Amino acid sequence: xxxxxxxxxxxxxxxxxxxxxxxxxxxxxxxxxxxxxxxxxxxxxxxxxxxxxxxxxxxxxxxxxxxxxxxxxxxxxxxxxxxxxxxxxxxxxxxxxxxxxxxxxxxxxxxxxxxxxxxxxxxxxxxxxxxxxxxxxxxxxxxxxxxxxxxxxxxxxxxxxxxxxxxxxxxxxxxxxxxxxxxxxxxxxxxxxxxx
Length: 196
Description:
This protein has helices at residues 11-14, 98-107, 109-133, 138-148, 158-165, 169-181, and strands spanning 18-22, 27-29, 37-43, 46-51, 57-63, 68-69, 84-87, 91-97, 152-154, 185-188, 191-194. Helix content is 36%, strand content 27%.
């Protein structure tokens, strides 16, 4: 999700941000750890996942440059990470503490507006995810996801889309091929479009 939250800060405010770089596969936060800051991905890629009772990995989200996380937890009554937050490669993250978030909100209207916009957009996405996960059929999940994106989806990659709808890459590839053959969707490069 594109955001301009860091650009809303003054140089003085930027000095209060902690910037950290993590190695590939380094755990940034552990599942169950208390969230005490919002985090913005400056570069690299992050995975948020946990392990099911059956031992399978459940990937909740893949975050890339400019994506923000922790903002929906930091002011929660139960501000605990729901999965491990792991760097998928060399990744740099900006961390803004809860106290600084509150201070920036109180004195910087542009920061407040951007924070609220990002959090609201994420709530809409989360509501859409519940609709997607309501179906056990991969076809239904994919078609719902495409519809939620305006009936046309530009995929970053097959793996990214598979993660978004919580299916395997292989199952998604087979489903896309099947829906294209049935002429329910079209696929041009990385864009999927509903035809019917």
